[in-house]
Fold:
Amino acid sequence: MIQKTYSTILLCLVLVCSGLAQSSLSTERLDRYDAYFQKEIDEGRLPGVVTLVYKNGEKVHESTLGYSDLTAKTPTRSDQIFYIQSMTKPIITAAFMMLYEEGHFFLNDPLHKYLPEFKDAMVAKDVKLGSVGGLEPVKSPITIAQLMSHTAGFSHGLGSSKVDEEVIRGLYQTQHKDIASRVAAYAKLPLYAQPGTQWYYSASPDILARLIEVFSGQTTAEFLQQRLFNPLGMKDTGYNLSEEQAKRMTVLHSYDDDGKLTKAPRQTTTSGNTVFAGANALFSTAQDYSLFARMMLNGGELNGRRYLSSKTVELMAMNQSKDLFQDPGKGFGFGFAVVDDLADTKSLGSEGTFYWSGAYCTYFFIDPKEDMVAIFMTQVAPFSSYYENKFRQMVYQAIE
Structure:
């Protein structure tokens, strides 16, 4: 008996030391997770959700709750398609880093080396006044690395300043035939800050999408399809949907003047899209996105095929913005935010987790320490980080 006990203890020690002892998710606590989101749906705060958790290489939980169309009471299904908005950014960044691995550029290269229209980039002297308040030249060239970490000085047009207003008009309220046209317009707009001095959320991944075309000789859509979507098996991810896929598209919901959840007056166009953007614009499913996330979790490899070097993924998941990213306990890498001081976050999780979200309240995170990826999909505007934080909380409380 003593020998058997000793052997068991020894085996446990070996497993822990080798990293093979893995935590699991409690079935009982996952019921709590589902009950929480079902309550939010029942009380009219969410229309419906698809959530997916992979842990230790296995699908351990999947929820399809509520409705894809609240008005028609169409039940949510697991292959529901969502407009993932800024969850496009990590995909574009990963694709762009594939070209880095082929030697097309250095990370500290100036952007104007490849897109000369950015050589004379100008910065607003006062963001509240925008262009009319005067412009000054950049003090240092915009670099490729800064594009991926949102420290290049660009804006996304989401704030309340005059610079933001100019950007939203120039990029999204102006018709562009392709990404080259949009990026050419971006080059003429004022920067929000001097390159390298501030973290400001931007549409700079659109510039990455344009650079993919410059380096590869393909459209961004073609490159993504050939190099990522087809080999990964992401069959429902792209810039346009087929007629069959469009039938599985989730309705966008918003809130009326009384705060009631309803069908948004403007729905996402699912076909005929020609601006193959990097800042937004992809459609996907929870299952498709999990394939991309699991590849990144595995250090650039999935199902025996390597997409990125493990060293590249390691670099992408490091804080590249120093102390410029202001969310406590977190930094920003290349295409992803990253948790680098868990105590400072005042939330459940793991240091080294990298993640992002989309404007219609879609979220995902990748946790290498727990060998876990988790995806949350709904379709609600405006954006709120509330359910992003609640989703993370409900996943982590289920870990045993």
Remarks:
- The longest strand covers residues 58-69.
